[in-house]
Design goal:
Blueprint: H1 2-22, H2 24-44, H3 51-79, H4 83-89, H5 94-123, H6 128-157, H7 163-190, H8 199-225
């Protein structure tokens, strides 16, 4: 288990090192997510009474779309110069490759969230400091499921021509449980609810995370071998 985790970290470190040199994903996805958040504030902010209803969507919707950009670019890199083939013939278990790719996506999306959340808090006048820790926990749970499911279906569509369109078409319906739960939990936090009152949402998020991780570990090898 420790060896598998260490190999997974090597795969993730490879993706992070490439991004550190190029900054392609964080620049494009981050700018896109912030732009959508700003447009949401201009279109839907009618007063303080709408803050708790609109702000959660202004956080999660840009995050979801930015994740598609991140997934598409990270798998496109694997297609270039047969990098995916080289990765598959290396002595790394398929489960470690899946975990490593998922960790990389988790880090990329987390950085985007770090940009989006303060912007939304500023534009929608949300008191961020009192809810920072519980909101961070909710975002982390949602991002785990998003990264795991996205990595699995990214591997499924990596060899298709219209992979970005196919990925978005397949992934968004699949992510609806975690997105709706994340928006609901965020709405309750913005409205003043305590973290202990989010039990149902947290259970749904944790269940989706478990299913996405378990499904990815079980199916990733078969998908990349096709």
């Amino acid at each position: 288990m420790l060896r598998a985790l260490r190999l997974a970290w090597l795969v993730a470190a490879k993706d992070l090192a490439i991004e550190r040199r190029t900054r392609e994903i964080l620049t494009t996805a981050g700018f896109f997510a912030v732009l959508v958040a700003v447009m949401s504030s201009l279109a839907f902010s009618f007063g303080e009474s709408t803050t708790s209803k609109v702000a959660p969507g202004a956080i999660w919707i840009p995050t979801a779309f930015a994740s598609i950009l991140a997934l598409g670019r990270t798998w496109q890199r694997e297609r270039e110069d047969s990098a995916l083939t080289a990765l598959l013939v290396s002595p790394i278990p398929r489960a470690s490759i899946f975990l490593g790719k998922a960790i990389g996506i988790f880090v990329f999306v987390s950085f985007v969230e770090m940009l989006v959340v303060p912007v939304v808090a500023l534009l929608f006048h949300v008191e961020l400091v009192p809810i920072l820790l519980p909101l961070g926990a909710v975002m982390a749970l949602g991002t785990i499921g998003l990264a795991a499911a996205g990595t699995l279906f990214g591997a499924m569509t990596v060899r298709t021509r219209a992979r970005d369109l196919v990925l978005a078409s397949v992934l968004f319906p699949l992510l609806s449980p975690t997105l709706l739960s994340g928006i609901g939990a965020t709405r309750e936090l913005v409205a003043g609810a305590a973290f202990s009152e989010l039990g149902d949402y947290l259970i749904l998020l944790a269940t989706f995370d478990f299913l996405a991780l378990a499904g990815g570990l079980a199916l990733f090898g078969a998908l990349v071998e096709e």
